[in-house]
Amino acid sequence: MKSVWVTRHGDSRVLEVREEADPEPAPGEVRVRSRASGINFADISARQGLYPDAPKPPCVLGYEGAGVIDAVGEGVDAGRIGERVMYLSRFKGQADAVCVDSLQAVKMPDKMTFEHAAALPVNYLTAFHMLFRVARIRPGEHVFVHMAAGGVGTAVLQLCRTVPGVVTYGTVSAKKHAYAREQGCDHPIDYKSVDYVEEVLRITGGRGVNVVLDPLGGKDTKKGYAILRPTGMIIAFGLANVHSGSKRSLLRASLVMLSVPRFSAYKMLGENKAVAGVNIGRLFGERELLAEELTELLALYEEGAIVPQVHEVFPFSRCGEAYEAIELGKNQGKVLLRPD
User: Is 163 exposed, middle or buried (0-12, 13-18, 19+ CB in 10 A)?
Assistant: First the structure.
């Protein structure tokens, strides 16, 4: 099989396509012959050496993909061979043969493409879990999300459209405003030309929003907390501010970490506000929960309520370009890899 390896920590030049023997599924696992796999910000952090959960290089990254089951381990129904599935993987997903727990290989709808299937698991699970399990949004609420044209941002906007009257706000560069509106953003905000805190407060008449979804961290977490109205919640789901292009800066990462606000339970009590965190990678052990949420997402897909937006599908041989599309903010929607 072929897979994308991180040979050492660094920029996209440390990525290398290698060939090796196919893995064999362990008991309870299936092997998926992958047709497409996703790239997420966690992969970029891991490649740069800024993600503590990642394996040490040399390693293969990747949390998700889609393909066809071609082998099963002991205890798994052999009838699943030939089944088209989307999969969740604890790394090693950016390969053309991936072994995963059978519960984390979910059958795709007949009309679903491999590209849509690979673009759905991590981004839409993250968005779904934040909106409906943690924040439990209700009709008429106001939701703010950073990086609204990215993979998770797109998923958030589409999912918010499934709840009547939800008003959405998103930071997004001016050239991506049309895309954000197409996905359901009521108020795209060009963070490069205006202060998004002032803009949100202006639009809401000083009231703020019910939910802030924060993938940035650092000072932006403090700013997000400031635009919450009473009973509001900010959910941290990333630390993108530690990134500075494609190269790692430990100084920048340290300064961002130092600027992350420390929240007091008594302060939140007095202000009737809440802070939460979501890391789907740390929920991979909750197999039944994630399988249930994926099933709900697939039902929304079949209804046409959500449609994954794929920016581009890059062959493994152009994996560096694929990573850079996200790092440099070029993408609108999901960036995928496929075996050459």
Answer: middle
Q: Is the pLDDT of residue 230 over 90?
A: yes
Of 239, 230, 278, 282, the residue nearest 134 (C-alpha)? 278
Helix (H, G, I), strand (E, B) or coil at 214: strand
Nearest to 130 by CA among 207, 210, 75: 210
HEC readout, 265-327: HHHHHHHCCEEEECCHHHHCCCHHHHHHHHHHHHHHHHHCCCCCCEEEEEEHHHHHHHHHHHH
**Preceding amide of 58 cis, omega within 30:** yes
Domain spanning 2-120+308-338: CATH superfamily: Medium-chain alcohol dehydrogenases, catalytic domain (3.90.180.10)
CB atoms within 10 A of CB 236: 21
253 band by pLDDT with thresholds 50, 70 and 90: confident
What is the rounded average pLDDT of the residues 263-275? 94
* Residue 251 reports pLDDT greater than 80: no
User: Tokens for 157?
Assistant: 């906007």
Instruction: Tell me which residue of 91, 106, 104, 97 sits closest to 24, measured CA to CA.
Output: 97
Tokens found for residue 66 = 């889609």
* Residue where the block lists tokens 């152009």: 318
pLDDT recorded at residue 259: 85
Tell me the CATH number for domain 123-280: 3.40.50.720
Q: Which residues pair with 33 in a beta bridge?
A: 68, 97
Q: CA-to-CA distance for 29 and 25, rounded, in angstroms?
A: 5
Whole-number Å distance between alpha carbons of 41 and 243: 10
Q: Whole-angstrom Cα distance, residue 311 to residue 78? A: 35
Q: What's the pLDDT tens digit per position in 17-40?
A: 999 999 999 999 999 999 999 999
The 10 Å Cβ neighbour count of residue 139 is 8
Q: SS3 of 204, please? A: coil
pTM above threshold 0.85: yes
Q: Where are the domains of the chain?
A: 2-120+308-338, 123-280
